[in-house]
Amino acid sequence: MTDTAIEAAALGKRFRRRGRQALDSCTFRLPTGVVCAVVGPNGAGKSTLLALAAGLTTPTEGTLTILGGTPSEARERLAYVAQDKPLHPQLTVGETLRLGRELNPRVWDAAVAERVVAGGELDPDARISTLSGGQRSRVALALALGKRPALLLLDEPMADLDPLARHQLMGMLLADAAERGTTVVMSSHVVAELEGSCDHLLLLGAGRIRLSGPLDDLLAAHTLVTGPATGDLGPHTVVESRTTGRQLTALVRPRGPVGGDWGTAEPSLEELVLSHLRSPEAPELRLDAPEEAAV
Amino acid sequence: MTAVTVPARSGRLHGLTWAMFRLHRSALWFWVMLVAVAAGALLWAYGPGVTAAEEVYRKLGCGQGLCGTSDTAFQRYELAATVGSGLLTVAPVLIAAWAGGSLIGRELEQGTARLAWTQSVTPVRWLAAKLAVPAALITAGTLLLTLLHRLLWSADGTLRAATGTRDWYDSVAFTANGTLATAYALLALAVGALAGLLTRRTTAGLGVGVLGLLTLTVAVSELRPRLWPTETVTGTTGYPAIGGAFVDEGALTSTGARVQDPLCIDDAQCLADHDIVGFYRDYHPSSHFWPLQLVETGIVLAVTALAVLAAFQLLRRRTT
Q1: Which residue, of A18, B160, B186, B232, has the fewest CB within 10 Å?
Q2: What is the C-alpha to C-alpha distance for residues B262 and B285, in angstroms, rounded to an integer?
Q3: Which segment of the chain is annotated as a signal peptide (chain B) (predicted)?
């Protein structure tokens, strides 16, 4: 059994129709058991990355290893919920779960799926076409969790959900994942909704990896500094700096202690992400050790 | 792993087959209804329809090919036979539209295909089920209607002779009386599915599916007279009578060469000037029914196989 959930090596995907490079030489490694947020602006390649991991499309360059094999080999052990939560509108909730059982005969856990549906007080005889967005998301998640996946891929899972449903579903999802050691990868362009729920970050910008690694390590590797506009940040890597009047605020990757007159603070996840998105020129930072080096 | 194995219940549908029947239940009922209506019409025509019409003509005592077609009993028989053979003829168009639109196009457009592919079902198995289940039901339905049409054909011979309607080589009767009705229905399924995969849209898949099918149908039908060597009859003074499907005609010179008829119309000098010594007609006698039928069926099934192959290739190239 491998301890790597996803490993990408120089992964690239170009869409022939649009001629656009959706993903460009992405290299990262995601250990098993983490809850990873894939963050980036719209069009950064988040959905493409998840679709590649789910074996729904093929990369045009590089390789992607899922749970030690190809995405296709991992099909039975991964679950994927697309952004628009596609379900068959003519089926009832109960029939949708039956579909999950029929199409996953070896791994289906009906009790889990039924519990997820029951948690939303959904009538099993209600047609999918009559459900609200939140209810549909719940059914889609029930279908994914009923498969008892080792890797759960969620593309913008919480978009179009009201705050209450978001809180409920996320709580249920994370509790289930923690209990079973499921690796969860979820994408979002709303950073706030991920804060507190993930321990790993993958920041994508224009199809490239900008940041990857354990969230705590990434935050610890950056410092938010404030000081006079004339100050010198010396050897440190400056991700972004902004001057307001005579005051300078910068996000740096310190090399050695930040001395002098600088006031320092640890950045929040949102500050870390936004600074990197505002400065496309900032160098990439990978704190996910390759598998060989992992203990 | 706490994987729970669901025992396959004997005697019930399961897996992808269950999914196919459930997801396309309305299409299944529509097909059952269409086959039932066509079968009912053909059976009625075969029984009371033919009997009543023949009774009328027997009383009238009109000669072969001279009996009018305005009689009510005959028109009822004709309507029933037309409904039966007509539904069998339009079935491929409906099948292509359904396969391009509802079966494949809509699933790709709405993303439900991806839903299936991220269960424990590979895209290739998904497409195989999408094609195999309808193919079995389509074959059963069209073969049943073909057999009923042949039954009617065996019974209404005198009626057709009396009124001079519906020859064996008429396109509708020719298709409905043999393996071609089934072959074209299967071609429609394959072409529709390919169109759905190409367009990934419901409406576009439907349109391209129907257009593709009609184009192929017209192209193959154009070939039909040339699919088996014709019989030739010749005459010295005018065109000889033929008993079958006309293919070609023209004039013959003294060397036996086939030339265009100079249209001399009994003008001996004109005929001599053009060196015309006779006239010929190429045709297919009714004994050519099965050779023509089987060669065309082979071609249609080969095109069907190519479309299926292309569909699988396309899907495999796009997904893993």
Answers
A1: A18
A2: 27
A3: none
List CB contacts (< 8 A) between B1 and chain A: 107, 148
Whats the size of chain B, residue-wise?
Answer: 320
- Name the nearest CA neighbour of A187 among A176, A175, A198, A173: A198
Measure CB to CB from residue A103 to each of B2, B119, B318 and give the nearest one.
B119
Q: Do B122 and A109 touch (CB under 8 A)?
A: no
Query: Taking CB atoms and an 8 Å cutoff, what residues of chain B touch A95?
Result: 22
Return the CATH number of the domain spanning residue range A4-212: 3.40.50.300
In a domain, B243, yes or no: yes
The residue-averaged pLDDT of B103-112 equals: 96
Measured between beta carbons, the chain A residues lying within 8 angstroms of B4 are 107-111
Contact residues on chain B for A70, CB-CB shorter than 8 A: 320
Q: pLDDT by residue (tens digit) across B274-300?
A: 899 999 999 999 999 999 999 999 999
Inter-chain contact A75–B115, Cβ cutoff 8 Å? no
Q: How far is B184 from chain A (nearest CA, A)?
A: 30
Reported pTM: 0.90
Distance to chain A for B6, nearest Cα, Å: 6
- Domain coverage including residue B277: 228-288
Does residue B22 lie in a domain region?
A: yes
Residues B232, B199, single domain; the answer is: no
The pLDDT value given to residue A129: 95
* DSSP code for A240: E
Residues A39/A269, Cβ–Cβ less than 8 Å? no
Report pLDDT digits (tens) over B229-262. 999 999 988 899 888 999 999 999 999 899 998 8
- Residue B183 shares a structural domain with residue B283: no
Mark yes or no for CB contact B119/A147 under 8 Å. yes
ipTM of the complex in this document:
0.88
A54 touches chain B (CB under 8 A): yes
Query: Which residues neighbour B45 within 8 Å (Cβ) at sequence distance 6 or greater?
Result: B77, B80, B81, B84, B152, B156
Tell which A residues from 143 to 182 touch B, by Cβ distance under 8 Å.
143, 147-148
Kindly determine whether residue A75 and residue B3, on different chains, have CB atoms separated by under 8 Å.
Answer: no
Q: Which residues of B touch A75 (CB under 8 A)?
A: 117-118, 120-122
* Banded pLDDT at A200 (limits 50, 70, 90): very high
Same domain, B201 and B260: no
φ, ψ for residue B186, nearest 5 deg:
-70, -35
Q: What is the pLDDT of residues B199-218, one digit of tens each?
A: 999 999 999 999 999 999 99
Angle between helices B202-223 and B72-98 (to 10 degrees): 120
B181 inside domain: yes
pLDDT at B1 over 50: no
Write the pLDDT tens digit of every residue in A116-143. Answer: 998 888 899 999 999 988 899 999 999 9
φ, ψ (nearest 5 deg) of residue A148:
50, 60
The encoded tokens of residue A258 equal 């930040």
Task: Please tell me whether residues B96 and B167 are part of one structural domain.
Answer: yes
pLDDT computed for residue A65 by the predictor = 96
